[in-house]
From TrEMBL:
It comes from Durio zibethinus (Durian). Residues 157-166 have a biased composition (Pro residues). This is Protein QUIRKY. Keywords: Calcium, Membrane, Metal-binding, Repeat, Transmembrane, Transmembrane helix. It is found in: Membrane. GO terms for cellular component: membrane. Signal peptide: none annotated. Residues 152-176, 273-301 are annotated as: Disordered. Belongs to the MCTP family. PROSITE patterns: C2 (PS50004). The chain crosses the membrane at residues 883-908, 991-1020.
């Protein structure tokens, strides 16, 4: 193959990915032929293809050096494909008595462990067992790589090597195949092997470059052309693919052979496509160049950017302050132009009587900057008059002279520059004055970036990045004790007790007390009931109490009311006593005249010892109480880098059949909300914004959502809600300390039509925290919620109602910000509708219970296999272990804990490698019925026709009937236990008492160890001694009476 002409075709060439599995050798295999040796061969299974090596006769340390080639059917999903290597003893090479090929061990790998051709190495994997009791030993050496081969025929140049260099099918030491291999991004071709098979990265092809041939089989030799390679870069020379030319031999050091354990943990990290394209994937440190503003790609050392989780994006900042001594004008504005980017400032509007020669703008502009593209560019800043578009002067800057500023450098001071006329300007005589500005090059970490007008987003309030804070929320506890001197109507019917209730209102919250108890002697009404509300700072609202007479349902009378400002209510942080107060009622409509309408006895306080839940408890991001005095110190820092999104679907129509998406990202943790800037008209937006939070509890959840901006197109009086694109959650406790996780998560939305993938979001997360900090470890032993939640707990229904009120208050508060965070965004991020009924969620919770109990089912099946002697060796070992535990009972507890320790150590290999995103299988989103989805999205009350509601009600009745049957079965078993001694069945009770007496006498006489051994051996007896019918004890229990026959 030649490298002289590399013409890029108009379309990328089609490629086929191939995987080469070179089986090098094996060591210390187990003899399985009955003569102290083995005749091993290897079978490799990958992507539905099986390949076999030759058999090495009677060799426990065989050497094959045979490459096995596989074709990858789906290169995008190669990471989840499983490669299974199995070693067998060939029965044909033994003494002829074997009926099958004996198993010598296996190795399971995944495509994510394959190296690119040129970067592979010889790795020894220990052979694994098929089952726990298999006897396997030894290890196998493999060299695995993959490459992409162009399948289109291209015209071969003159120096193309002859076709005899293609790999022969039966050669034991094949030579590399002559193929063209594409790089990671398919833009620059490079050779499949580096020097000696260990080259790194794509090597550009040059026409005059000499070539090297690499032989990967021992001895390790390098064959070189007559023309030696350049001495400056011996390892950068691409290997030759033509090996027919005689060359001298140069000995090269043997490459390092690494021995490592088989990474079986990959089986959990990447299952066999567990969720298809809906699983999170690791993107590592490969940060793609931003589509909106690329960083400088120049060579040479650069400063380390403080935004270490995201890609630094360079911007050209221009700060326009003001001008002086301008030519006569009406509404001047500033125009900034560089390359193809152009921005305009707001026109200055003069006040009456104000001189029109000194306008002020005080605006900052940020233009996308690329050092290579802008090396010879010029920055033009000009001043124009709005009505007439009259040129008032301008200034030009060479971008190569613009300074670079990185925080913590101080802001660049603006300077005065004289306005000049253009070279061919006809109005040059009307140009005069100076302009004050500052120009510098910075990144998104610059202090001026959040308020700057960027070229990749229009200057609209709804497109800027912002940080929000949730309001400080309190629980308001109102204890209604009693009321006296109420003007109750006297003309009540006989034996009629007045129904007096208290209704309390705070903003949109309204709670009514239960019916009061009348005291006939003192004519007072007693309640002693707690009413709880959610109050938010600033405490500007008032609590309104209405005393109602609801004796007559048709005409409710207001006996009096009272208004209490929240600012006058005393806060408390613990269970300290709060003094009660008597307050006079006003404005009653009951009987009696005058201005006195009675009084009411109340106790009020703002509870600072509670945490006001505005999220669902299982996805809560903060558990701190309201009172800051009770906060504990932070245990770490959470850093989130929002890199960008890929493959977003069009969310709106621009006209002409073209769709567009204006995406922004929202992240919420604790009281802090962050919002990225809006990238307009992009399906692959790159935000590259980094934010930090203090972490007070590791068992919390970070929520990140992506939305499509509609408010930027709305009028001032119009409210267009933003569309949801998807969200993910990351639990902080699943993150290892001080480790950066850079992953891509699918954005999934469940619609009425079913599950829909809207794209992917790329995030970088780091939890900076000392692993063994005492505060971090002690946090796991502390209560999840503050102390008051356990001393004076709130009911489940009451807690849910308060959470709804808190969510609404947070949404209203953030909607008043600038730019506003829409209520639909806040409710979606806080899972405000998580409590609504859904058949899908009910099924998901049922399967979660089944998965939790799966270990018990597995243990029962294992015990059943033991007692049925399915594996005699295992059953014998269980007998021995049982005898040891019976004769040494002190070992039972430590053995149990040791077993738990071993289980934990074993499952360490299968620990998840990346934080999990949304699980569609766990959510039952793949197999959900359309009618169930329609029911889930239905409103309350339902808006569906009566026949649909009737069908859904009937379906719910059928499901409830099944649940009712299961509950009845549970009750029946419990009642049968009670019937053993309740004498409901006299004969059964007599039998049971007699058997218990016999067992008592036996246990008094026979040593307990002997009884335990006898019972254990009886339970584990061989199936030949078993009766296939149920035992007598079970038959006796099933015949016991229950109370089900008494049900009507």
């Amino acid at each position: 193959m030649t490298t002289s002409s590399q013409q890029h075709p108009p379309q990328p060439p089609k490629t086929v990915r191939k995987v080469i599995v070179e089986v090098v050798d094996a060591r210390d295999l187990l003899p399985k032929d009955g003569q102290g040796s083995s005749s091993p061969f290897v079978i490799a299974d990958f992507d539905g293809q099986k390949k076999r090596t030759s058999t090495k006769y009677r060799d426990l340390n065989p050497v094959w050096n045979e490459p096995l080639e596989f074709t990858v059917s789906d290169p995008d999903n190669m990471d989840v494909e499983e490669l299974e290597i199995e070693v067998f003893n060939d029965k044909k090479s033994g003494n002829g008595s074997g009926r099958k090929n004996h198993f010598l061990g296996r190795v399971k790998l995944y495509g994510s462990q394959f190296a690119k051709r040129g970067e592979e190495g010889l790795v020894y994997f220990p052979l694994e067992k098929k089952s726990v009791f298999s006897w396997i030993r030894g290890e196998i050496g493999l060299r695995i790589c993959y490459y992409d081969e162009i399948v289109e025929d291209q015209p071969p140049p003159e120096e193309t090597p002859p076709p005899q260099q293609q790999q022969p099918p039966q050669m034991e030491e094949p030579k590399p195949t002559s193929v063209l291999v594409l790089g990671e991004e398919g833009s620059v071709p490079y050779y499949p092997h580096g020097l000696n098979g260990y080259g790194h990265g794509p090597v550009p092809c040059y026409p005059s470059q000499s070539v090297v041939v690499v032989e990967e089989s021992p001895p390790h030799l390098v064959h070189v052309h007559e023309e030696p390679p350049p001495p400056a870069e011996p390892t950068a020379v691409p290997p030759n693919v033509a090996s027919g030319i005689p060359v001298p031999e140069v000995h090269f050091p043997v490459p390092e052979v690494r021995r490592m354990q088989s990474s079986r943990g990959e089986r959990v990290r990447i299952l066999k496509r567990p969720n298809g394209d809906y699983s999170p994937r690791e993107i590592g440190g490969n940060k793609t160049q931003g589509d909106n503003a690329g960083p400088s790609a120049s060579a040479g050392p650069e400063r380390i950017h403080p935004y270490d989780l995201v890609e630094p994006m360079q911007y050209l900042f221009v700060k326009i302050v003001k001008a002086r001594r301008l030519a006569p004008n009406e509404c001047p504005y500033v125009k900034i132009r560089v390359s193809s980017q152009c921005l305009k400032s707001k026109p200055t509007i003069y006040r009456p009587g104000e001189p029109n020669d000194s306008p002020e703008w005080s605006e900052v502009f940020a233009l996308c900057y690329n050092k290579q593209e802008s090396a010879n560019a010029t920055l033009e800043i000009s001043v124009w008059d709005t009505p007439t578009e009259h040129f008032l002067g301008g200034v030009c800057f060479d971008l190569s002279d613009v300074p670079v500023r990185d925080p913590p450098d101080s802001p660049l001071a603006p300077q005065w520059y004289r306005l000049e006329s253009g070279a061919v300007d006809q109005n040059s005589r009307g140009v005069s004055g100076d302009i004050q500005l500052a120009v510098w090059i910075g990144t998104q970490n610059d202090d001026a970036f959040p308020e700057a007008r960027t070229s990749d987003a229009p200057y609209v309030a709804h497109t800027r990045s912002k940080v929000y804070q949730s309001p400080k929320l309190w629980y308001l506890r109102l204890t209604v004790i009693e009321a006296q001197d109420l003007h109750i109507a006297p003309n009540l019917p006989p034996l009629t007790v007045p129904e007096i209730r208290v209704k309390a209102q705070l903003t949109f919250q309204s709670v009514r007390s239960r019916r009061g108890n009348m005291n006939n002697h003192s004519m007072s009404v007693h309640w002693n009931e707690d009413l709880i509300f959610v109050a938010g700072e600033p405490l500007e609202d008032s609590l309104i109490l209405l005393v109602e007479d609801r004796t007559n349902k048709d005409a409710i009378l207001i006996l009096g009311h009272v208004m209490i400002p929240l600012i006058s209510i005393e806060p408390r942080i613990d269970e300290s006593h709060v003094a009660s107060k008597w307050l006079g009622l006003e404005g009653g409509a009951g009987g009696g005249g005058g201005s006195y309408f009675g009084k009411i006895h109340l106790r009020m306080c703002l509870e600072g010892g509670y945490h006001v839940l505005d999220e669902a408890a299982h996805v809560c991001s903060d558990f701190r109480p309201t009172a800051k005095q009770l906060w504990k110190p932070a245990i770490g820092i959470l850093e989130l880098g929002i890199l960008g999104a890929r493959g977003l679907l069009p969310m709106k129509n621009k006209g002409g059949g073209k769709g567009s998406t204006d995406a922004y990202c929202v992240a919420k943790y604790g009281k802090k909300w962050v919002r990225t800037r809006t990238i307009t008209d992009s399906f692959d937006p790159r935000w590259n914004e980094q934010y930090t939070w203090q972490v007070y509890d590791p068992c919390t959840v970070l929520t990140v959502g992506v939305f499509d901006n509609w408010r930027m197109f709305a009028d001032a009086l119009e409210d267009k809600p933003d569309s949801r694109i998807g969200k993910i959650r990351i639990r902080i406790s699943t993150l290892e300390s001080n480790k950066v996780y850079t992953n891509s998560y699918p954005l999934l939305v469940l619609t009425r039509m079913g599950l829909k993938k809207m794209g992917e979001i790329e995030l970088a997360v780091r939890f900076a925290c000392p692993s063994l900090l005492p505060d971090t470890c002690s946090a796991y032993g502390q209560p999840l919620l503050p102390r008051m939640h356990y001393l004076r707990p709130l009911g489940v229904a009451q807690q849910e109602a308060l959470r709804g009120a808190a969510t609404k208050m947070v949404a209203q508060w953030l909607a008043r910000s600038e730019p506003p965070l829409g209520q639909e965004v806040v409710r979606y991020m806080l899972d405000a509708d998580s409590h609504t009924w859904s058949m899908r969620k009910s099924k998901a919770n049922w399967f979660r219970i089944v998965a939790v109990l799966a270990w018990a089912v597995g243990l029962a099946k294992w015990l059943d296999d033991i007692r049925r002697w399915r594996n005699p060796l295992t059953t014998v070992l269980v007998h021995i272990l049982y005898l040891v535990l019976v004769w040494y009972p002190d070992l039972i507890v430590p053995t149990g804990f040791l077993y738990v320790v071993l289980i934990g150590v074993w499952y360490y290999r299968f620990r998840p490698k990346i934080p999990a995103g949304m699980d569609i299988r766990l959510s039952q989103a793949e197999t959900v019925d359309p009618d169930e989805l329609d029911e889930e999205f239905d409103t309350v009350p339902s808006s569906k026709p009566p026949e649909i509601i009737r069908a859904r009600y009937d379906r719910l009745r059928i499901l409830a009937g099944r649940v009712q049957t299961v509950l009845g079965d549970f009750a029946t078993q419990g009642e049968r236990l009670q019937a053993l001694v309740s004498w409901r069945d006299p004969r059964a009770t007599k039998l049971f008492i007699g058997v218990c007496l016999a067992i008592t006498l036996i246990l008094y006489v026979v040593p307990p160890k002997m009884v335990a051994v006898a019972l254990g051996f009886y339970y584990l007896r061989h199936p030949m001694f078993r009766d296939p019918m149920p035992p007598a004890s079970l038959n006796f229990f099933r015949r016991l009476p229950s109370l089900s026959d008494r049900l009507m």
